[in-house]
Amino acid sequence: MYIMRYENEFKISVIGAGSWGTTIAKHLAEKGFDITLWVKEETVKESISKAKENHLYLPKIKLPDNVHPTNLLRNALKDRDLLIFSIPSQYLRDVLKNGSRFIRDDSLIINTAKGIELTTLKLMHEVFQEVLSQDIRERYASLSGPSFALEVARHKPTAVSIASKNLNIGKIGQRVFSNEYFRAYVTEDVVGVEMGGSLKNVIAIAAGIADGIGLGHNSKSALITRGLAEMTRLGVKMNANPMTFLGLSGVGDLVLTCTGELSRNREVGVRIGKGEKLEDILSNMKMVAEGVKTSLAAKELARSFNVDMPVAEQVSLVLYEGKSPETAIFELMTRQLKHEAG
C-alpha cells in the first residue's frame, strides 16, 4: 500500500551528499520539508552541521537549518516516505545492500544517478529491482535532465524529467520537486530517461576532447548530433521510446553536458585532449565523472545488442587503450560513408 499522508507531510531523506544530493536537500528544505541527508564523510557532516555548508562538494552555498546530516545509513533510511538516492552508479548496489533492511516496504524511491553498472551492464532501476524487489518498479522513479547542481542551488530556472512505470508515482515526484524555478515533467519511459542520462556523459567526454585539441564548433556540433543518434539507436534496441531522446533527459542533458563549463565529463575530455593521463585527471577530481566507466559499459552494450556506436567506442579506446584523440577522430571521419538515418 502506498503512502496516504499528504505530500507536504512527507518524511524525506536524500542518500548521498555530493553536489547534486546536497543541492536536492537544499531545494526540498527550502520548500518546507525536513530533510535528512546521508553523508559519507565525517568532515562533510561536520561542515553541514556547524557551518551550514558542504565545504567539499558545494562550497559557498548556505544550507537551510532543516537539512539534517547523518553518517548513519540506518537513520537516513528508516521510516521514510520518500528516499532520494544520489549515489554514483558504480557504488549504488553496495549502498542498497547495506541499507535494504532499513527501507520500508511502502517507501517511494527517486533515483538521480546517471550511469550504467559496469560489472552487470544494468541500468539503475534494474539494480534497485535486484537488490530490493521486483515490485519496487511500482514505487520507483528516475529523475534526470539538464541540471547542473550549482545553478539549481542558485535558483536558476531548470527543467527535468521524472520517469516512472507508475505515472502516479511520477506525479508525486513532480509535485514534490517543482516550484517557480524548478519544473519537472513526467514520463513512463524509465529506460529512455536512464539511458539518456547515462550515455550523454560519454558523448560529453568526446566533446571535451574536441575542445581540448581545438577542433572548433563544427566538430563539436557533429559529435553532439551523431552522439544523439547513437544514444537513440541503443535506447530503441532496449525498448526505450525514441522520442524520449528528443526531450530533456536526452538532447537537453546532452547539449548541457557537452557545452557547459560545469560539466565534469566534458572537463575530463578537455584534459585528455590537452595531453593529460586519465589516472592523473581522476586522482585530483573531487566528484565522479560517470562517463568514464559508462564508456566501457556502452561499448559492451552496443556489442551485445549489435548496435553501431562509433563515438562511444572511440571514447573508450582513448580512455583505456591509449589511442590518441587524433587517431580516433581520423577513424571516425574516414569510416564507410552511410545514410544519415543509419
List keywords for this structure.
alpha/beta, 2 domains, 15 helices, 49% helix, Rossmann fold
Write the layout of secondary structure elements.
Blueprint: E1 12-15, H1 19-30, E2 35-38, H2 42-51, E3 67-70, H3 73-77, E4 82-85, H4 89-99, E5 108-111, H5 124-131, E6 140-144, H6 149-153, E7 158-163, H7 167-177, E8 182-187, H8 190-212, H9 217-237, H10 248-259, H11 264-273, H12 278-283, H13 291-304, H14 310-320, H15 325-333
Parallel strand pairs: 1-2, 1-4, 2-3, 4-5, 5-6, 7-8
Antiparallel strand pairs: 6-7
Helix pairs in contact: 4-5, 8-9, 8-10, 8-11, 8-13, 8-14, 9-10, 13-14, 14-15
Describe the protein's architecture and organization.
With 342 residues, the chain is an alpha/beta fold. Helix content is 49%, strand content 11%. It has 2 domains: 7-188, NAD(P)-binding Rossmann-like Domain (Rossmann fold); 199-333, Orthogonal Bundle (N-(1-d-carboxylethyl)-l-norvaline Dehydrogenase, domain 2). It is built from 15 helices and 8 strands. The protein has an 8-stranded mixed β-sheet with strand order 3-2-1-4-5-6-7-8, sandwiched between helices. Helix 4 links the parallel strand 4 and strand 5 (108-111). The longest helix is centred in the middle third of the chain and has 23 residues, at 190-212. The relative contact order is 0.10.
